[in-house]
Amino acid sequence: MSQAEGTTDITTGGSSGIDDRKNATIRYVFFSCALVTVLTTLGIILVLVQGSIEFFQQVSIVEYFTGTEWSPVIRPRSYGVLPLIWGTLLITAGSALIAIPVGTATAIYLSEYADPQVRKVIKPTLEILAGIPTIVYGFFALSFITPIIQRVFPDTGTFNAAAGAIVVGIMVIPMVSSLSEDAMSAVPDDLRNAAYGLGATKFEVSTRVVFPASLSGVIASYILALSRAIGETMAVTLAAGMHPQITMDPLEPIQTMTAYMVQIGISDVSVGSIGYQSLFAVGLTLFAMTLLMNLFSLWIKSRYREEYQ
Amino acid sequence: MSTSNPFAEGTEDIARKRLIGRVFVAICFASTLVGIVALVALIVDVLYESWGWVTWEFLTYPPSQVIENFLPGGRGAGIYPAIVGSIFLIALTAVFTVFLGVGAAVYLEEYAGDNWLTSFIEANIANLAGVPSIVYGLLGLAIFVRGIQLGSSLIAGALTLTLLILPIVIVSTQEALRAVPDSQRQAAYGVGATQWQVIRDVVLPRALPGIMTGTILSLSRAIGETAPILMVGAATSLFVAPDGLTSPFSAMPMMIFEWATLPEPEFQHVAAAGIVVLLTILLLMNAIAIFIRNRYDPRS
């Protein structure tokens, strides 16, 4: 930085070479902090890919993606990941069935109908749901949700996919409701007033003007919620069990990709064993699925965003 | 004007339109209640299950496999090593994240030019925030535990949690830095301050409350995380609190997971008692964050 003669100087020596070098050094220190985030991504990819390569040297990639039996640790061994993917998708679909309608309706209520004072209380209250540790949801599923399911369907076991889907659904409601509400509140009042001027009712304004106008933000919130459900770990491990199988029955126990990783994590598998390597293959599959969804969400948001002045 | 009015149909039957409107509001309101009711049910359930189990002994004794020890008149058993483990873990994580998170945010807001590298780093941070926490656990396991041979230690757990919450801390710190008015920076430059002096003496002090609020909220997320520390190898059967960076550690969510999976039904109450302790600490951290925001943050 150049300095004019005679300015008031709060530095001790003005702009000397030492100062320039010091500033450059500081800049590099800050830059390396930012670089840590890039290294984290590289580290994740490297670790997952390297572990997966070791895994696929022993297991055929075709068997991994087409096999319908998953039992990499217990004999007879088989390495078909489909039951784990199925378990994950079952939980994700079930939680979406709860979180998407409930979250969207909540967002419409908060954005279009609720008194601003009410909204100021309800929105942060709902966001508490997102701040509760997922292990607590797992406990809630075991001690509250599953007993209710068992009262309706007495044959249900302690672990079942339905309880897992329900608690994950509850957990992601605030993601859908808060992000959708943000998108709906951003729709300018001019659009609402124009519709009222044409004789629209408040219901019509909400569903045929505000909702379509905020669609890109709303859909992005859905995808983020789904991606969160896919990666959800402790609640589904506790609620849905450790039984990898392809079933349509939500009252059966299942195992998600994340729950399998927990199962290996708490057992004593030795480094270099096939069980240890399978962690990284499953981890890479999970990482790829969530990454695709997150990128898709960003793309929708930027591609279909309506700009309002 | 030949465009027809899209809202003209059905206007003969106003009563029907009104009814649809009322039903719709009722549905939307009921949906809003779903989340609230679930929250209340969860809290009541945890309090009910833990009633009478959160005792002084529970807070001050190490865990036990025998349920009688948790009962009044037993030898005493509880969550003590896990409380200390969690506090150490979060304190270490705080040191690492404040340094890295504030450094990265200052670089992005104050130094970085508007170029491809900056947008790449920012897009990368946005993506990292969406990576499931258990994947960070795998990273910690492969790099910190095995790779640089830290073992299943306190520091390996803290480094893993640091990487996990770093994206959130960076984003919230960026927001706090952005809220410092440019005129203050210009005024400092105007009296001859170097960029570093502007950041150290003007920007950071002004942004400090915002940075602290964001960091504490992120740490309160880290303290409840189970999956990453489970992969790193947090223990569930430790009887002493950790006494060094490389000593094995236990943590509250890990103990809750252990108790919740035990077959004896009484351990459900022990798990609930652990949850009460965890949620209380979480609540305290959030209260501190909100207090700092309301008291010191110029934005509020």
Descriptive notes:
The complex is a heterodimer of chains A (about 300) and B (about 300). With about 300 residues, chain A is mainly alpha-helical. Chain A has two domains: about 1-55; about 70-305, MetI-like fold (Orthogonal Bundle), CATH 1.10.3720.10. Helix content of chain A is about 70%, strand content about 0%. Chain A has twelve helices and two strands, in the order H-H-E-E-H-H-H-H-H-H-H-H-H-H. In chain A, helix 7 (about 190-195) crosses helix 8 (about 200-215) and helix 10 crosses helix 11 (about 255-265). Chain A is globular and about 70 Å long. Chain A starts with 16 loop residues before the first helix and ends in a 6-residue tail after the last helix. In chain B, helix 3 (about 80-110) packs across helix 10 (about 250-260) and helix 5 crosses helix 6. Chain B is globular and about 75 Å long. Chain B has two domains: about 15-50; about 80-295, MetI-like fold (Orthogonal Bundle), CATH 1.10.3720.10. Chain B has eleven helices and no strands. Chain B starts with 13 loop residues before the first helix and ends with a helix. The model of chain B has no long low-confidence stretch (mean pLDDT about 90). In chain B, about 70% of the residues lie in helices and about 0% in strands. With about 300 residues, chain B is mainly α. At the A-B interface, helix 1, helix 3, helix 4, helix 5 and helix 6 of A face helix 1, helix 3, helix 4, helix 5 and helix 6 of B. Chain B: Pfam families: BPD_transp_1. Chain B: It is a multi-pass membrane protein. Chain B: GO terms for molecular function: phosphate transmembrane transporter activity. Chain B: It is found in: Cell membrane. Chain B: Belongs to the binding-protein-dependent transport system permease family. CysTW subfamily.
